[in-house]
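Researcher: We're teaching a course module on how sequence relates to structure. For the next exercise, students receive a sequence and then see the predicted structure as tokens, so they can try to spot secondary structure elements on their own. Here is the exercise chain.
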Amino acid sequence: MRGRSLMIALALAAWPLASYAACEGVAPEQKLQNTFARDIGRDLDRIREDGWIEVAMYEDFAPWSWEDGGKPRGIDVEIAQLIAQELGVTARIRMVTPGETLDADLLNYVYRGAVVGGHVSDLMLHAPYDVAYACRFDQVVFTGQYAVDRLAIAYKPADYPDKGPTPPVFRYDPVGVENDSISDFFLTSVAHGATADKVHRYPSTQAAMKGLEAGEVMAVMGPRAEIDAALQPDEAVHEPPLLGLARNSWTLGAALSMQHRPLAYAVDDAIAAGLEDGRIATIFKSYGADFRPPER
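Model: And here is the predicted structure for the students to work with:
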């Protein structure tokens, strides 16, 4: 399964950082026609009238969102509940399977719905917030920036007593990564492929961290929040410079249909309130994840 961090980072890396003329030269998308109302979510008034909001997020994605004993858990789950509380409704969590690209996920869960039996949710979390990338989607509103995630390296100080390892070290020392993630692509390209035989691929960053604990690898590279959530007492994490990588961090937010801008404003206000009073920072702390607030 393609790593979610790869989907986000590669999508953003393909576009320049936002400028004053961010959408200059970008042709607008063709507007969708003959689309049933049920395929474009519900407006804010309808959500409040019904008393609930459906929020889509990725499945099997600890510490962000996963099911534990049939109940949804995770940072994104609790942020969805925070948003719902601010709107005066309850949150209905929809766990979705990531597609091959972030573009496909936005289409399937935000502004059109899957071709067969699909529907869009009122809101999707863990969407990247980047003006240049957003220019491609005049069907989507990107809002509610709530955190910045970034790449990091986990290791055991006993193995690296002087300082934490950096990518060139992995020409000699085994390192774990999530298969087909941005860490995988980056490390296999370091030193023109000289690290390729030292990169051990796992189904997830969480599985790679278990490999570090078991001594199968000497380090793990992956998104900071996923590493933090699995970090053991005898392990440490750092964020060294990653020369040659276009993006090593990305801002997370919410995405929803452009037809429901009043809902977008309400969601952004809810996130702003959670950032200001510390509730979002507390959510991250409860999952053992380092919190970096976004620039808003």
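Model: If you want an answer key for the exercise: The chain is about 30% helix and 25% strand. Confidence is low (pLDDT under 50) at residues 32-39.
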